[in-house]
Amino acid sequence: MFRFAPLISALVVVIGSATPGLSQDATAGEAVFKKCKACHQIGADAKNGVGPVLTGVIGRPAGSADGYRYGKGLAAAGEKGLVWTEELVTNFVTDPNGFLQVYLDDPKAKSKMSFKLKDEKDRLDVAAYLATTTDADAAAAQPEPAPEETRTVEEVIDDQVFTEDFLADPANIKTGKDIWFAQCTHCHGFKAYPGKAPKLKAGKYKPEFVFKRVYKGFKKMPAWRDSYSIDEIRAIVAYVKSPGFSP
Q: Which residues of 214-228 are buried (b: 16+ CB within 10 A; e: fewer)?
């Protein structure tokens, strides 16, 4: 099952125990979780954002937070039976892509989450912190499921209208910025490898063009409609068109 493990140097053991001798500190983990807040919320009033609500995630089947649109990799892991434990969360945040590739026995598996926690003590502590939330908190945190999209890809693209007010709304820009720095910079921004993808130029593109490329995909660029909602993709457009856009 784990024949791809040698390809993943960051993961010594994907399904297994943490390093002996390191203790977990949930209080310290709460401070570490500040690094995660750009994408995840936790608590009774938490809502899905760039990432799903993490209230009650320990003991929850992977890919099962109501109302959140998961990537194909994590959804497949949940269908295969992955249930989050503190140890599995610790290993997942080491290398999300590598974790899924090994768990699914698929070298092409990918996670929407690109962020990694480099320090092992931080990983242990944040997992301990996540374990302090309860099922009752999780139930209070879950929003209503999003309605299923019935329009065709081209209909969705044609229906998009971007007003000046929408593009200037600070909330839209912030949401788009969070997604951009969590996902898009790995190919199009300062984190991109030379030649991996074009580095976007501020102010060059029409909003409808940006939406179409993100929603539908283009050549080697995936169709992000499989990972992000229409509202999230519209927010990316708002950030790309904002005066503060910085690839």
A: bbbeeeeeeebbebb
pLDDT digits (tens, 9 = 90+) for 38-48: 788 888 778 88
DSSP string, 41-72: --STT---SSS---TT-TTSBTT--TT----H
What value does the CA radius of gyration of the chain take, rounded to a whole number of Å?
19
| Helices within the chain (DSSP H only) | 26-32, 72-80, 86-92, 96-103, 120-130, 135-141, 153-158, 164-168, 170-179, 185-188, 207-216, 230-240
Beta bridge partners of 218: 221
Contacts of 7 (CB under 8 A, 6+ apart): 98, 101, 107
**What is the pTM assigned to this prediction?**
0.58
| Three-state secondary structure call for residue 224 | helix
Domains of the chain: residue spans and CATH: 21-141 (1.10.760.10), 153-240 (1.10.760.10)
